[in-house]
Design goal:
Elements lengths: L4 E2 L8 E7 L3 H12 L2 H6 L2 E6 L4 E2 L8 E2 L9 E6 L5 E6 L4 H9 L2 H8 L4
């Protein structure tokens, strides 16, 4: 796999939101804009945001990443995938989606509830 970063390197540290759009490139920019309007919400929940265009996995600035994801992860041409801190897929949703739905899903997870109780953002 070369020098790329493995998904497991984020385990117990970050939640990943991957926006998959291999058909309509404008969905990417619209969906990314919706999420990046709430940087404090992303930071509070330890979310890293990525975009998959069918060939490359990009960060929010459009820069190619070296993150390797498991074969078969992407099931649809247009979807959002939420990967929890345990490394498992917690949510799949068609695009577009309101980021509030993703934040609410995360806030209902036992690990997130524990983080809130411990006074972590």
């Amino acid at each position: 796999m070369g020098n790329g970063q493995e998904l497991s390197s984020f385990r117990w540290e970050k939640r990943l939101v991957i926006i998959v759009d291999t058909i309509q490139k404008n969905t990417y920019s619209n969906q990314i804009k919706l999420f990046t309007k709430s940087p404090e919400e992303l930071e509070e929940r330890d979310i890293l945001l990525f975009y998959y265009d069918g060939k490359n996995l990009l960060d929010t600035s459009g820069k190619n990443t070296d993150l390797h994801l498991p074969e078969g992860m992407f099931q649809k041409d247009s979807e959002l995938i939420l990967i929890g801190k345990d490394g498992s897929i917690k949510m799949r949703s068609p695009l577009p989606i309101d980021p509030k739905e993703v934040f609410q899903t995360i806030d209902q997870m036992p690990m997130r509830r524990s983080e809130i109780k411990k006074g972590q953002p």
